[in-house]
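Incident review: delayed structure delivery

Summary: a single-chain prediction request sat in the queue longer than the usual turnaround. Root cause was a stuck worker, restarted by the on-call engineer. No data loss occurred. The affected request and its eventual output are reproduced below so the record is complete for anyone auditing the incident later.

Affected input:
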Amino acid sequence: MSDWLLNLPVLWMTVVIVGSTYVFATALYVLVTALSTREMGNAFNAISPGMLPPLAVVFALLIGFLAAQVWSDSDRANTAVNHEASALRETVLLATAFPGATESTIRDLVRRQIQEAVNLEWPAMARGQATLTIVPGPLSEALHVVIALKPKDEGQAAAQRELVDSLKAAFDARRQRIILSRSSVNWVKWTALLVQAALTLITIALVHSHNRIANRIILAIFATGIGVSIVLIASHSRPFTGEISVSPSSLLQVMPEAGAAQSVVN
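Output delivered after worker restart:
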């Protein structure tokens, strides 16, 4: 589905998608009504209403499968961001075992990492263009700083090991969120869903072509259901895109304040 549509606010996305569904249903009704007054009318009346339940069931199953996918991706993306925030917070707390310049350096690197994630990576993830080929500089530098430390006692040695583990956890969580940012409902699934929806509307229009009022009512009801279902999938189709997306708020909450370590030491 088009990026411009997925980036719309949910209200406007609803207007566009539901409106398009209504336009299709209206055009379908006009066409079927015009054809039903000719020889095709007898053929339309011969179509069994028993076709509708299987078509509706298949459409419902497609919606269910796609909803399960997009909600699972969204939950996993939220979990990855929260794990990354927890790992970076743990890094800042463990850095206090090395007071002075080392603690200040680690805090600054964590702050830079969060700033780059929010200002650079999040917009790229929203466009589905984030990549793992670029190594996060601040995280990599922090890992080198920690590995190069020379512990003075057992407490610092244990803190160094924990710092390495927390930085590795931050690397892994970042990798997970970037991978998930490229997750989406592919064109094959969208095509199958839209074709199934169109077939169901066409069948409704044909089956009820002999009763125009009932036809309009049923088409309007089902078109509304189709439009709302598509909005549900589209608004969640990419974890980091659109109004309903995973935000970096967890990372911002654990961002160290500039100069905080120095003020404690002084």
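Verification: The CA atoms of residues 68 and 233 lie 10 Å apart.
Action items: add queue-age alerting; document worker restart procedure.
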